[in-house]
Amino acid sequence: xxxxxxxxxxxxxxxxxxxRLIEIACVExxxxxxxxxxxxxxxxxxxxxxxxxxxxxxxxDEFLLDKPRFGxxxxxxxxxxxxxxxxxxxxxxxxxFLDAELSRLNTGAGRxxxxxxxxxxxxxxxxxxxxxxxxxxxxxxxxxxxxxxxDLHGGLIDxxxxxxxxxxxxxxxxxxxxxxxxxTEQHDNVLSVPVVLLARPRVLRASDDERVRxxxxxxxxxxxxxxxxxWRQLIES
Length: 237
Description:
- The protein has about 240 residues and is of the alpha/beta class.
- The protein folds into 2 domains: about 1-170, Nucleotidyltransferase, domain 5, CATH 3.30.420.10; about 205-235.
- About 40% of the residues lie in helices and about 15% in strands.
- It has helices spanning about 50-55, 60-65, 70-80, 90-105, 120-130, 135-145, 155-170, 210-225, 230-235; strands at about 1-10, 20-30, 35-40, 85-90, 115-120.
- The chain has a 5-stranded mixed beta sheet with strand order 3-2-1-4-5.
- A hairpin with a 2-residue loop joins strand 2 and strand 3 (about 35-40).
- Helix 6 (about 135-145) crosses helix 7 (about 155-170).
- It is elongated and about 90 Å long.
């Protein structure tokens, strides 16, 4: 399976208020393995960035003035994601902005759902960790993903972190935590950990000579105890 972990940055939070994309970043996996291929571009949004978005991303309006507009990179971007499963945290946000950009082009490019399936890791996290914070930073902390490089929100670094978070959430391994976010009580619950077998266990069988010697050893134990030894009783039970 080909999967693309995707993240975007925008001029603001509300696409219905005319906010636009300023960065798209994608990381490619095939069969859950990173391929080393990624796609990343900054975009000129033809509008100012909200102060809140500027503080979160560290991107200034002047930095984007010489960057391409969405219409100039759309073919390259769609070719990169076409046919893949998109992995996105809070997918409705990013897909909403991407669909809005596609609709502005009036080229019949359609919607993201026409080209890709979408897996929302925020929905997945809320199902697995109900009642807890499930932001990307919170998931990194919970799953042991190093996010020390994330001083600001950036598309590519967030996509890379989300890749690690997704792989950790879907690996079949459970992290043991001594404390839980928001917990006010301690419980003596037993945590059931699924066991994932990565390969068929190797079965070693005794040779004929080893079986003969084993029986001789049991006979000697029976003789020394004056009856059937514990090992003989276990075999015959």
